Amino acid sequence: MTRILGIDPGSRSTGYGIVDSDGYHAAYVTSGCVRAVNDNLPERLRIIFCGIQELLLQHRPDEVAIENVFMHRNADSALKLGQARGAAICAVITQSITVGEYTPTEIKQSVVGKGNAAKEQVQHMVMMLLNLDKQPQADAADALAVAMCHANTSNTLVRMQGVQGVRKGRWV
User: Fold this and answer.
1) Which of these, 22, 102, 130, 133, has the minimum number of CB atoms within 10 Å of its CB?
2) Contacts of 117 (CB under 8 A, 6+ apart)
3) Does residue 47 have a pLDDT over 60?
4) Is the pTM of the predicted complex or chain greater than 0.85?
5) Which among 67, 101, 106, 142 is annotated as catalytic?
């Protein structure tokens, strides 16, 4: 079993989701959000960094996956999102854990089957695939989808390695 931490970065709410995967099935461990509601951006980045570090210490994931930054409504939002993502990645790499990066389209394609799926569809599929009793909060569901996308992609790459003898991926 591989324990995977999925991260959906946000400057005020960073979603996290942890699953255990054997390469074919994923089992829910936990999910939630690191909330950074302070108006001071450096303080919010510190909260994200420390929150992710606490998750790493508490749950000891083997691998971490994070959503790539996409162009947001405006440049300021995209920059803040990128900084939140950077704080989360820095927290992970201080523990020497591999980080996989995935676009929103790749994540939705992996979990829902289509790259332009709505947030509600992602939430529903995460709930169904992980056999959850209730629908997770949107940011937590997105993070669980990131973790599941990583599990699916890693399993495919490992199988391809056996066939081709080559492993390719986008790893930080």
Assistant:
1) 133
2) 108, 111, 125
3) yes
4) yes
5) 67
